[in-house]
Amino acid sequence: MINVFQQPPQGIQTAPHEPRILAAGHQVAVREVDLEGVADKEGLMLAFLRGLGLTDHFGRNWDALYDVLTDPDARPVRFALVLRDYGHFQARHKQLGPQLQQVLLGAQAEAAARGRSLWLLAEEPDHDTRHW
After folding, report:
1. What is the domain-level CATH number for residue 69?
2. Dihedral pair phi/psi, residue 95, rounded to 5°
């Protein structure tokens, strides 16, 4: 199996097993955003605030999220974002899902244009805890 970090970032990819260990060997910084309990846009922005270690000054909107993901002073040159429960989030949120994807892919393209790498790694929980 090819290590995801041996290739340039290519959209939203399935997270490898033990992404932090693999990333460390390739000098890639990793942060994790847990989308499992997100119910609305405010919850989504709070998940990114926590996952990225942002301050309360984070604007909690799409433009602010794009800006923090593309800020060369705030993000390392080689950076991976692990999106926990991404597939389930997309299935649950028919409007928020595509909006988030657009911001993430736009930030990834901007990073690449600046000679930087932003991996977007979708990771699903090991067990199904959803209650319908």
Report:
1. 3.30.370.10
2. -100, -50
| Whole-number Å distance between alpha carbons of 132 and 129 | 10
Based on the structure, what is the number of domains in the chain? 1
Does any domain span residue 55? yes
User: What does each of the 132 residues of the chain score in pLDDT, given as a tens digit?
Assistant: 468 999 999 999 999 989 999 999 999 999 999 999 999 999 999 999 999 999 888 999 999 999 999 999 989 999 999 999 999 999 999 999 999 999 999 999 999 999 999 999 999 876 544 443
Which distant-in-sequence residues (6+ apart) come within 8 Å of 8 by Cβ? 112, 117
Instruction: Name the β-bridge partners of 32.
Output: 82
pTM: 0.92
Task: Scan for tokens 């002073």, then name that residue.
Answer: 73
Structural domain of 65 = 12-123
111 located within any domain: yes
SS3 42: helix
Cβ neighbors of 99 (< 8 A, separation 6 or more) are 62
In a domain, 5, yes or no: no
